[in-house]
Design a protein that fits this description.
The chain is of the alpha/beta class. Helix content is about 25%, strand content about 25%. It has ten helices and 18 strands. The chain has helices at about 40-50, 65-70, 70-80, 95-105, 160-165, 170-180, 210-215, 230-240, 245-255, 270-280; strands at about 5-10, 25-30, 30-35, 60, 90, 115, 125-130, 135-140, 145-150, 155-160, 180, 185, 190-195, 200, 220-225, 255-260, 285-290, 295. A seven-stranded mixed beta sheet has the order 6-5-4-3-2-1-18. β14 (about 200), α7 (about 210-215) and β15 form a beta-alpha-beta unit. It is globular.
């Protein structure tokens, strides 16, 4: 049975708090796991969340500020210590190669696992998994930063009543799915469109073209909302978003489930982020992320 869920390991911006660890997120997508922005303490948060090194197939780093990358050293060493049986691919801004190298080899350890380095230099597709295409888009932050998006190809959903109408059953069902036609009956005549799911991960950034491109039509958008709206100028100055800005992006992009995260320690009431997001007109599912929560992907759009 395929599992698609988003596991939150940490939600703090810049510095951890008593209740929020530095950033860290794992997307379970069928049989693969994609670890995003492992900040300091990610390895311990993985243990608390029931996430193993064996669950990681890809690591995606948006940028090389410490709260998004200092956990790389521990995570990579744990992958090697546990002898993960599959290669792990790392994506990160190409301009930060020296930082990745320093973190990968921060201390002595025995390398037992292949870590494929695939740095990101431009917008566009990065990789193709068994059920998704991974792409990156440039964001607007004081250091080079990229957001990531997974897009599942659209497919077809077989309808039993249409199969019965055309007398198709048994092994012939597999044949028409594979070949697209059987004895003059086309796949379109016994099925309906099945839109692929879309997921985007947007961290430290001002509003920019990349934010909107990543969010467009997403089933789930995970996006930073470091500041509340009354501190919008502070957000712009430091290359961040407010709760209202993030929610308006999601509203205009037709996002189905919005996950807000990366909160400044200056705010004590998480509920205010939800109130401002709703006030900005977002009406879909909304999660104000807390450490160690699991957020399932929405059911497929009809």
């Amino acid at each position: 049975m395929s599992v698609r869920e988003f596991v939150v390991l940490g939600t703090a911006s810049q510095v951890p708090t008593r209740h929020r660890n530095h950033n860290g997120y794992l997307l379970r997508w069928d049989g693969e796991g994609i670890l995003f922005d492992p900040g300091e303490g990610t390895q311990r948060q993985m243990l608390r969340a029931g996430v193993a090194a064996h669950d990681i197939n890809r690591i995606c780093v948006t940028h090389f500020h410490g709260d998004h990358s200092l956990g790389l050293a521990g995570v990579i060493q744990r992958i090697n210590l546990d002898r993960v049986p599959h290669p792990v691919t790392a994506h990160y801004p190409a301009s930060g190669q020296k930082f990745f190298d320093r973190l990968r080899y921060a201390t002595a350890y025995r390398e037992t696992v292949i870590i494929d380095e695939e740095p990101v230099a431009d917008d566009g597709p990065l990789a193709r998994g068994t059920s998704y295409v991974l792409e990156a888009r440039r964001l607007s932050h004081p250091v080079e930063s990229f957001g990531y998006r997974l897009t599942e190809p659209d497919g077809r959903r077989i309808l039993p009543e249409l199969l019965a109408r055309h007398g198709i059953k048994g092994p012939d069902v597999g044949r028409i799915q594979r070949d697209g036609e059987l004895d003059g009956v086309t796949l379109e005549e016994v099925s309906e469109p099945k839109p692929g799911q879309r997921f985007a991960f947007v961290m430290d950034t001002r509003l920019c073209e990349g934010v909107h491109a990543l969010a467009e039509g997403c089933d789930m958008l995970v996006i930073e909302s470091t500041f509340l709206d009354e501190d919008a100028q502070l957000a712009t100055d430091h290359g961040h978003l407010t709760a209202g800005q993030a929610a308006r992006v999601a509203r205009d992009a037709g996002v189905r489930h919005l996950v807000l995260t990366h909160f400044s320690q200056r705010y004590s009431d998480p509920g205010e982020f939800e109130r401002q997001a709703r006030g900005a007109g977002f009406e879909g599912e909304l999660t104000v992320a807390a450490d160690l929560v699991r957020v399932p992907m929405p059911k497929r759009a009809p």
